[in-house]
Amino acid sequence: MTKYFDLALTALQALSVNRLRTFLTVLGIVIGVGSVIAMVSVGRGANEQITARIQNIGTNLLFIGPGQVQQGGLALGFGSAQTLTYDDAMALLNEPELLSMITTAVPFNQTFRQVVGNGTNWNTRIIGTTPDYWWVRNYQLAAGDFFTQQQYDAGSAVAVLGADVADQLFPESDPIDQNIRIGQATFRVIGVFARKGAGALGNEDDVVVIPLTTFYRTITRQVAARGGSPTVNTIIVQVADRDRMQDAIDAIAAILRQRHRVSQDDFIIRSQEDMLALANQITGIFTLLLGSIAGISLVVGGIGIMNIMLVSVTERTREIGIRKAVGARRRDVLFQFLTEAVVVSVAGGILGILLGFALSRLISTIDINGQKIPTVVAPDAILLAVGVSAVIGLFFGIYPAARAARLNPIEALRYE
User: Fold this and answer.
1) pLDDT class for 11, splitting at 50, 70, 90?
2) Are the C-beta atoms of residues 54 and 276 closer than 8 Å to each other?
3) Where are the alpha helices (DSSP H) in 211-329?
4) Which of these, 1, 2, 8, 59, lies nearest to 335 by C-alpha position?
5) What pTM, to 2 d.p., does this model score?
6) Model confidence over 124-156: pLDDT tens digits?
7) How is residue 99 annotated by DSSP?
8) Residue 56 has what DSSP assignment?
């Protein structure tokens, strides 16, 4: 053990002889490791941000959307058919088989309209829904109240504004009890949502929410929900237990097939898990791409190690001959030069961690259109970067070390 320690010490002393050259070689690894950590942190940060926004929609939610329609033999895609109705949502709530599985079913319709208020106007998303919508979607109220069941049943002309809409229409005044106009209809503002941010379903702050009964009467002018079965864009179902999500999907699908009298689904059911899986797949590819691009600089740094070690072998040919002449074995020479290569790469890896942290912090301060770039430095990314740098040191150091170990001591002693 003492002999190997001495060999390692000799390797360190050899590196200190040409400090500038060693520093420049280490710098290549530092940049490579720092770049990998920074780029992976961007990918991880994006993944966590997207996951948080999807979870911010609500908990244990299923989204039932209309199916597709055929025109001239062409499928127009999901959402093109008007197959879901208000009565479908009510049927799910009243189905005995589902009572133990779901908490509520919330239908909603949405469209974009120009909203006028306080002498200004703003184009935004108008959502017509039921009184359970706000808590199922994890909305909080910054002021006022959400509409009640009584207001819903009466088709009252009341509205709850998203934070962005309130800021645009009433920048310097309290919007509560103010009037806004959508088309020819006038609505009284009874509440303002707390800021929620952009989510998987669009900008959650750029909305106006009104009772679905009022939406049918004033916006789309369909038959009132109580008097018929008008269509809806989406039905949100909250499942009571996450472990029963698939059971709920199967039961809902069976009920809707029976109600619609179809053998092939004319609707589509998506869960948050589906959204999360898709988001994780996309951000995973994004992270891999960023890490791979940054990893190229690690390979370049490894080539730099090989280059400098080959130069070192050439410069120290006589030293190698002397060591072999006094009894050093091939493995002793091999170990010395491998140690030098690994020390350079590991030192670069450790300094690269610090650079990666600094770059990640710097990137997280960048503001693009009001959005910060999130970064997350994970321990596994650090271990991976340092481990890869050590492997690179070994890989690119093997050839120079083997070349040094194979030198004939007599020829080495003659080298000038």
Assistant:
1) low
2) yes
3) 212-214, 245-260, 272-315, 317-325
4) 8
5) 0.63
6) 999 999 999 988 888 899 999 999 999 999 999
7) T
8) T
